[in-house]
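2024-03-11 09:14:02 DEBUG pipeline.ingest accepted 1 chain
2024-03-11 09:14:02 DEBUG pipeline.ingest length=462
2024-03-11 09:14:03 DEBUG pipeline.predict start
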Amino acid sequence: MKNLLLLLVGLFLWNTNLTAQELQPQEMRDDLRIFRESLEKFHPELYRYTDRQTFENHFKAVESQISTPKTQREFYKLLRPILVDLKDGHIKWIVQGRDQHYGFFDDQLFPLRLYFDQQSVKILSHFGDDKAPVLAEVKAINGESIESIEKNLLSGMTYGDGESLGGKYYQLNRYFAAYYSTEYGVSESYTVELADGGKITKWAGKGVTKDQIEVAYKKADEPNTFKMINSSTGVLDINWFFSDEDGLDFKKLLKNSFETLKEEGASNLILDLRGNEGGSEKFGIELYKYLAMDKFDYYDFVTTKPNQKVDFGNYTSKIFRMANSFSKEKDGIHLFTMAPTKTEKPYKNAFKGNLIILIDGQSFSVTTEFASRVKSDRRATFVGEETPGGAEVNSSGFFTILTLPHSKIDLGVPRMGFHMADLDPAMDKNRGIIPDVKVIATAEDLLAGRDPVMERAIEMVK
């Protein structure tokens, strides 16, 4: 959920920064016990992708390494592989009072904006005022190969369900400096080995601040929009599954958009879901009622864990606790009985024409659920990159949030497991939604302001 991060920051007061302080073995054992109990008692799909024995081995490995004092950062990294193996992109592991990505450093951060296209790594710009060899290919940073750095950073990321890589590459491109600093620390200066114009060169420069990096990405939230690009094709851009703060009602937008498609006699619709992190489940269902060819089941069932009494502080929404009190166990699975699992019917004016859906590594949560329903019904052609959300299960909804008392790290655990109905057997249930037409922008595309994914979709409707 989009507002969870604000909640995580706002729920707890900032305590003394523990980055340089050491945690004693008993303190870490106490935090590890709470960490483990939280996952086991609250997470509805703990063993969805990784078996119980593998987790048991993880915890034993951690216990064997906390016989000597560690810093907060060392402890954060020590527990992280457990969350990586959980393979739940919604899990939150955030240093209390800190930005979720910049957990430990705000200054002397890596100064170059890099772009990983899964084939090479190139420079797009410098985050400060220094010059940078734009489009030069990066080979190493401070003596370590870029292949090794990429592998290490990807292996520590939790943003992705199952084996999906789409979201992890999205995060790597957006927050490379942050992830790099958590893994390797920061430097007063950085030396970068490059391949440029057939020659091997080196670039050196000082680090930059978090504020310098973030200003390069700052942009206003774009509203959900619809437009006709020609007499036969409409483009519906859904950036979030919410009614936005400016008052543009989501249902009203859909109603007006599909009425226009019908009035114009349009035969093509391009639905752009790139960058859409999710939102409200009901809006995903609402959108599909305008696109489905026949009646449909959206969710098969929704799992949960019953309300729990624990001996450590945590926050869980009162609304969820009340609704969860009606959950029931069936065949060894605890079901959230108030979930929207009824059969839905398409609207009478539902669009029956050619549908193309654009997705990327930020098409997450409710967005992936919607894409899974469409993909299973073979209702559209998908263009772009793999989604970070899983094709079969999305663990999200409400969260239980707690702070480990000694290390002061926040853990956010999703409480509901949304299982999609009537999955296409041909789909890989352990991955995100795989596009039918894979299109990955190049560094050259980004610098030129080109959108090859949209260009490809327009070519297809022509």
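2024-03-11 09:14:41 DEBUG pipeline.report The mean pLDDT is 93.
2024-03-11 09:14:41 DEBUG pipeline.predict end
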